[in-house]
Amino acid sequence: MEEQFIPKKNEQISLEICDLGEEGFGIGKYHGYTLFIKDTIPGDFVEALILKGKKTYGYAKVLRILKPSPDRVQSLCPLASKCGGCQLQHLSYEKQLEYKWNKVKNCLKHIGGIPEPPIEEIIGAEEPYYYRNKAQFPVGRGKNGELLIGFYAGRTHTIMNTEHCYLQAKINTELIKRIRNFLEREKISIYEEATGKGLIRHIMTRIGFRTGEVMVCLIINGEYLPHKEKLIEELKKAEKENPNYHIKSICCNINQERTNVILGEKVISIYGEPYITDYIGEVKFRISPLSFYQVNPVQTEKLYKKVLEFAQLNRNEIVWDLYCGIGTISLFLARQAKMVYGVEVVAQAIEDAKKNAELNEITNAQFFVGEAETIFPEKYQQSNGEMRADVVVIDPPRKGCDETVLNTIAKMEVERVVYVSCDPATLARDIKLMRQMGYEMIKGAVVDMFGETYHVETVVGLQRRDM
Ligand code: SAH
């Protein structure tokens, strides 16, 4: 075998970028050796510095773009290359979509074993910026004691002061400015990771995109917030200047642990209600500081419409929604189904799901706490087949589905399966298994829920083959 060329650390080289890798890094070849280079895109010709090299691949840092790719655009955010939040701002949105669509197609082809995966055109966002309804800003002090509110620089705990984030709802800029005024004027102490002392750790905001309701939650290392009436006063000013928004909830979350986990368990309300309300489609949701809720509500609705379309419901079906979270998909489907059963491992999420069913007067949805791989086969057996699913929706975390879930689907002879996934590689792996169990991929859709980042969301419709 030919000896693999390995460049030396700190060597300066120039090369062309030919591909975009997993996490949005550009990929170039140097004498046949693969290099991953952050902040580069296919078509760029760059000068780069070798950072570290392994046997078959290495990492380099871009020093200079000698010739930019025709797909390169100017990043809007001056912090884009430092911040951990965005990876693809320098790539035109059209090409971001193409990259995501190809990523899904290639996974289904190479891992899933489907030569020509039937995937529809990608559903892009009308607004690939300002789409997030939830923000968590770490708070700290800089070297000279200045107050920092912003985001962590990629893979570190260094806070970059961020006055304006291009992914968050625009109102955040105003809210953060007001909170900053409050913290400075009232000389509120700021949490210090190194010593565990100081009060303010994080600021969380949640915005109802359809209702305009705003929640501000300060995460504090203590039992109460001094001068809270001043904070309320400041935030009411933000409301006055932004008449489309309404400050519905101000609260504190107490976290006195020395941990990287942002939220503690206890919430105290200091103004308004302890929740905000928002809608996905016609379904209403109550969102409290601790509840999970999709972060891009506009694209989520498009995603769920695809789920509904692929599920082909006729009001006669029993549907199981596995990995259901707070029951968003279950409730979205309920009006078109005879019965929906949701399963989720987080007990608090199931509490929310039940409350949301009540809030919407949906009576044909039932929720269970536990692992999908345990509850789903167990309930089926115990009910003597009465709870047999006609349609199963699965929306697992990144690692994909447990095989028991897939086996149960096959054993039940479920007609249709709709698989929602945030990781096309594990999706493709599971689809390969399902194909071996007698299912065929009928349709696929890719929805861009996270513009400017490398994340991609896929829905696949599968049908049981006639046997
Ligand atoms: N379908 C929901 C949430 C999907 S996120 C929505 O659209 O909003 C994936 C969910 O799977 C998370 O809520 C996570 O808590 C849950 N989960 C993880 N492992 C699980 C398991 N083994 N069984 C059931 N739920 C699980």
Give a verbal description of the structure.
This protein is of the alpha/beta class. The protein has three domains: 56 residues, OB fold (Dihydrolipoamide Acetyltransferase, E2P) (Beta Barrel), CATH 2.40.50; 203 residues, Rossmann fold, CATH 3.40.50.150; 147 residues, OB fold (Dihydrolipoamide Acetyltransferase, E2P) (Beta Barrel), CATH 2.40.50. The strands form four sheets. A seven-stranded mixed beta sheet has the order 8-7-6-9-10-11-12, with helices on one face. A seven-stranded mixed beta sheet has the order 17-16-15-18-19-21-20, with helices on both faces. S-adenosyl-L-homocysteine (SAH) binds next to helix 5, strand 16 and helix 7.
The parts where pLDDT drops under 50 for at least 5 residues are none
Q: Bound small molecules, which ones?
A: S-adenosyl-L-homocysteine
Structural class: alpha/beta
Let me know the number of strands: 21
Strand content: 25-35%
Whole-number total of structural domains: 3
Task: List the total number of helices.
Answer: 9
- Helix content class: 10-25%
- CATH structural class of the largest domain: Alpha Beta
Could you give the distance between the termini? 48 Å
Shape: globular
- Do you know the CATH topology of the largest domain? Rossmann fold
CATH superfamily of the largest domain: Vaccinia Virus protein VP39
Q: Strand order across the biggest sheet? A: 8-7-6-9-10-11-12
What CATH architecture of the largest domain do you see?
3-Layer(aba) Sandwich
Mean pLDDT: 94
Biggest sheet features = 7 strands, mixed
